[in-house]
Design brief:
The chain is an all-beta fold. It has two helices and 27 strands.
Length: about 450
């Protein structure tokens, strides 16, 4: 058993995805650890088998962009000059960026490994800082349009990872458990002054949902705040603002009874883009999992649970641009007359008033799921010797047997499109019966 160790390394990688000669990235790493329990001054104690302190640092790189992305590209287009004929011209739809380089992630880690009695405990604090982010910027239309790649921005991930494992407890019943949990705080710290859109759902459904902005989590949802349902025309007429000239205007002049009333956050110029705010985030604060297993006289049992806490889902099953699409059951509670609902709006074909990006479509995506449950039985060895078999075990297994969640959609494990759920097909509940035979 080593009391301490030190390692260091330097890796160099080249990339042919960047313009011109290969751009090399240099990625150092180092680690140090000290097992205090192995020191001579700890020799008389019989509680701790291990008390190891760890620290590490490393850099990893990312150059995952399409080949030739940093070269200047032209696209053809037809132009009319006031006649029935057109001419072919070219415009720069991708601009050369010869100075682009690797995106780099710096990770710092402090850890503790503790072993005592029947438990192993591991705790790690980490900080990951990604610099020189690779992303595309738009060129304004008045400058010709198109895009170009840049190294710009920083992204911080800070958190804690923990695990606890019990040694097998042997006796009439042998059992063991394993638990793990991680907490992550994600923040964009420097990407320039602009708010950048990431995921436009389009199709008459409100537009941009996921965004990136300084001081916010990556991919946060940005939209209007639901402030109840207009129950009658009088409420619409009373929802007003006064302009700089002292004139009164309706905040939502196109609204009808049964439509969502959105909050006018700034109190200026009615309802516009400045009244949007952060309405959710797709990244969980906590993710966790735990396994339970036991064995008794040839009968074995194991169960694996997993889940997340603190993430949101933008649920938009019903699309306003699909006239004959199905509604989910939550729309049974829709507004259909004064006083019938103050949350779910009226139903109308081609509805554009209520399909603004808003927290009406945001739900808590936290969940706990029994991912795998297996029960098996191994026949006694004496019985099997008569037929020349060394081992025979029968088992039944179920996957995705139940989920505890407040999410009303098909599956809280959306995992696609940055937390947007447009009717993602749910994971199947699966049952398996099998046997393991050893000759």
């Amino acid at each position: 058993k080593k009391r301490y160790f030190i390692t260091a390394a330097l890796r160099a990688d080249g990339s042919s995805k960047f313009q011109g000669d290969n751009k090399w990235g240099y990625f150092p790493s180092a680690a140090i650890a000290w097992d205090i329990a192995q020191e001579s001054f700890m020799s008389n104690q019989h509680v701790l088998d291990q008390l190891k302190l760890r620290a590490s640092f490393g850099v990893t790189g990312n150059q995952d962009i399409a080949a030739y992305s940093t070269l200047g590209m032209l696209s053809g287009a037809s132009y009319g000059w006031g006649t029935s004929t057109s001419s072919t011209g070219y415009w720069g739809n991708q601009f050369a960026t010869p100075d682009i380089t690797w995106e780099k992630t710096y990770q710092y880690d402090l850890g503790l490994d503790l072993s005592l009695g029947g438990f192993n405990i591991t705790v790690d604090w980490f900080k990951k800082q990604t610099k020189d982010l690779l992303f595309q910027k738009q060129v304004p239309k008045y400058n010709g349009g198109g895009t170009y790649w840049v190294n710009q921005g920083k992204l911080n991930n800070t958190g804690v990872e923990m695990s606890l494992t019990t040694f097998p407890v042997k006796g009439a019943v042998t059992w063991e458990t394993s638990l793990n949990a991680s907490y992550v705080k994600n923040t964009v710290t420097d990407q320039g002054p602009d708010r950048v859109g990431l995921n436009n759902i389009g199709g008459g459904m409100g537009g941009q949902v996921s965004w990136r902005e300084n001081g916010r989590p990556y991919g946060f949802f940005y939209g209007y705040l639901h402030d109840g349902i207009f129950q009658n025309q009088q409420e619409i007429d009373n929802y007003t603002y006064v302009d700089s000239n002292g004139k009164t205007h309706l905040i939502q002049p196109n609204a009808k009874p049964g439509d969502i009333r959105f909050k006018d956050l700034d109190g200026k110029n009615g309802l516009n883009g400045d009244d949007r705010t952060m309405i959710g985030k797709p990244n969980p604060d906590w993710t966790y999992g735990f396994t339970l297993s036991a064995d008794w006289k040839g009968l074995d049992f194991s169960a694996f649970f997993q889940g997340s806490i603190g993430n949101d889902i933008y649920k938009l099953y019903r699309r306003s641009n699909v006239t004959f699409g199905n509604y989910d059951k939550s729309w049974l509670n829709r507004w259909h007359g004064e006083g019938t609902s103050n949350w779910v709006p009226r139903v109308i074909d081609g509805d554009n008033n209520n399909y603004q990006v808003s927290n009406f479509f945001v739900e808590d995506g936290s969940y706990m799921r029994l991912k795998v449950l297996q029960i098996g039985y191994s026949l006694p060895g004496q019985m099997l010797q008569r037929v020349g078999v060394k081992g025979l075990r029968f088992f039944v297994q179920g996957e995705n047997l139940f989920t505890i969640t407040n999410y009303s959609g098909y599956d809280p494990e959306v995992g696609t499109r940055d937390g947007f759920d447009g009717g993602t097909y749910p994971q199947a509940r699966t049952y398996t019966i099998g046997a393991n035979i050893t000759f």
